[in-house]
């Protein structure tokens, strides 16, 4: 298992639990550079065809880790976070503190307005095939219209998004 500090609702830090998918001594520089580019280039760069806005062929990921990630199995331990009240089943993905530091002021609303979730609107609508600004807009749309019925629809659409693998790497 792997633990990591993430930012939850109202900017409150919590420890997320996941299955380890990377080598133990994997550095963070690749991720930090990518996230900085992803956030700062969002809205300035149009998506072309099947471009995937996620690190592909990440050398830090183990073979088993690749399988776990592709099938979203690495996130199963997050049900413990839901049980503890740190997360909900549906909501925006919880970012790292480093990522929040990169946000523009309007981006921060995505960690203020809804509890983080295991799945969410952007995972079923765009997954990793969206720009950062598009992802934030989907998270904010979810937060504004949050209710039981949309949550049920998102939960029902999640297995299809996972099985199809669109945008998952």
For the largest sheet, list the strands in their spatial order.
1-2
Compute the separation of the termini in Å: 20 Å
Catalogue the unreliable spans. Answer: 46-53
Largest pleated sheet: 2 strands, antiparallel
Strand count: 4
Order of helices and strands: EEHHHEHHEHHH
| Helix-residue proportion | 40-55%
Count of helical stretches: 8
**How would you sum up the global shape?**
globular
Short summary:
By secondary structure, the protein is mostly helical. It is 43% helix and 11% strand. It contains 8 helices and 4 strands; from the N terminus they run ββαααβααβααα.
Task: Report on the architecture of this protein.
The chain has 169 residues and is mostly helical. 43% of the residues lie in helices and 11% in strands. It has helices at 29-41, 63-70, 78-84, 97-102, 109-112, 121-125, 132-144, 148-164; strands spanning 2-7, 13-18, 88-90, 117-119. A hairpin with a 5-residue loop joins strand 1 and strand 2 (13-18). Mean pLDDT is 85; it is low at 46-53.
